[in-house]
Every structure is written in C-alpha cells, then in structure tokens.
Amino acid sequence: MAHQFFFNPYILDNLPLPEKGFDVVQDISEPRLRMYVTSRGAKTFFVRRRVRGRDQRIIIGAYPDMDIETARDRVATVLADSMKKMPVRRKKISFHDFWTLYLKHKVRRCEDSEVKLVRAVNMHLADLFDKNISEISENDIKNVIAKISGAAVAGRMQEVLASVFKYAIEQGYAKNNPVENLPKIQQVRRQSPLDDESFLRLIDVIRDVDDVVMRSAFLMLIYAFLPKSKVLSMRWDDLDFNHYMWRDWPLSNVAVVLLENMAQDGDWVFMGRCKNHLADPRVAWRNVANAAGMPNLRMDDVYKFLMRRLKWAADREDLRENMNKLLEKYSIY
Question: What pTM was computed for the model?
C-alpha cells in the first residue's frame, strides 16, 4: 500500500529514496494522484485505472518540472481522456451507405415517422449520396441546405446531418463534423389558430359539409383522437366494434356510432379514388377552414388540440372514458 500524506514541496523534496526499485506515495488532497520515487531520485506523478480487471498506470509528469497543483489539476483530465475510445480509421464509405448504417443503428422511430424521415433525406440530401463522407466539406453542407425551401425543413435536415456526422466520427469514418460551425437556422414556430371557441365553430362547419365521406372523415379527426394519416387510412378489418377499438387504440362512443352508420364497402373506411383510401383532401379541408374563419388551419391541428386537453391514462377503458368526457365538454355526444 502506498504511503499517504499531503503532498507539499518540502516533503517531496526530502523523501527518503528506496535502496532499490521504487516506492509509491499517495496524495491525501487528491487521492487519485500518486508518485513514483526511484532509487536514483526520479520522482514522477501518475494515476491508476482498471481496464478489464487489469491495473493500468498513466504518467502525468515528472517532479519538480511539474508542480504539485498542476499535477492535481491534471488528474481528472487524464482519467477522462484515458476512457475515450481510440478512433478507428476505416475505409472510405459514401454518404448514402453510411446513412443506411445510421438509420439501422441510431434511428429509433415508429414506422410512419421513419418513412417520413427517409423520404425527406432522399429528397433534400441526395446531392451528398455519392460523396465519400470523410470528404464532405462545410461548403457542401451549405449548398445542400441552401436549396431547401422552408426554414423548418432546412433546420431539421441540418440537425440530421449534424447527428450523422457525429456518429461517423464515433465510428471512425470521418475526422470532423462539417456541420458543427454552421449557424443554427432560425425558425418561426407556427401557432395553431384553434381555441375552445374556434373549435366549436369548426365542428359546426364540418357538420354542414355536403359530401358524406368528407364529412365523416373530418368528424373522425375529432372523434377518434388520431392524426390525419391514421384516420384517412383506416381499414374495416382493423376495427373491433365489440371492444370499441381501432387496432390497439380505444374509440370514443361517438366515433363508434359514426362508423357503425357508415356503409362498409371495400377495404377502406374512407374511400378515395381508384379503390384506394382518401389521401389528402386539401381542397375540401381548405373550404372548411375558410368557412370556420381559420384559413391556415391544418387537419393535424385538431389532433394536437385535443391531445393537449385529453387526460392520459394507461388503461384503455380509462382513456376511452376520458375521451368521452372531453367530447361531452364540447357538447359532442
């Protein structure tokens, strides 16, 4: 065991030398700091760490060339640096191939969200696909980002690129991140126009829509507490009227009544053209939004409005009951 005492110049200068080999002494002020004292009078600061059960010693500096306070300050940095993985320099890889690796190992999203991300990357970052990821420069990134219309999308793509290059550095495919010095894209956050009063106004407008399919689809945005993509792509086979469920999502009472009163023709609940489901009824929704006095209202604003007010419950029956109570609050029953 090392001799422990408070390191100070007087004691270190007058340490007795071992007859042969070396002795080890330990600082009380910074217990991780130790010193070798050899039979020839050499004195060296060092720290210890365990690697896979083995003792490893890292030299900090020689005394008195390095003073005691400097050695104490260096302990934490030296230990932190020693824990970092040594970068592995791998063979060259294209951005497209590395993006595939990144998608597999780093992206954790639901299926719909991942599809949207892949579609956005393919659309906006295709100019980088054939370039070696280690050779992509800051100017290459600037040029790609500059071509993207819309601050929100451009900002999101810049964030994705920063994450991809960070992972590339960790995996040894790149030495630096060309995105880290780019200024963050300023975005003006869009505010939903919906409040309690305008929400009630929207419901009245939807109920007056002449087209039965459109009216039912727009009402289901409210009754089902689901985003547009899920409502419009509902299949009859996914509905369980015995348990008031769509897949694993509970349905409110009014949602069940609306669905039960619809004709079950074909696979899709809301039929569109060519025997496919209703995809994106922009014109019909624009007419509804304008009539409700909210021309910039989006279909998913309804889902977000309701989910912010819905009391969440892990139990499906409790969640369904909370849906019914919230709809009753707005006189929907």
Answer: 0.53
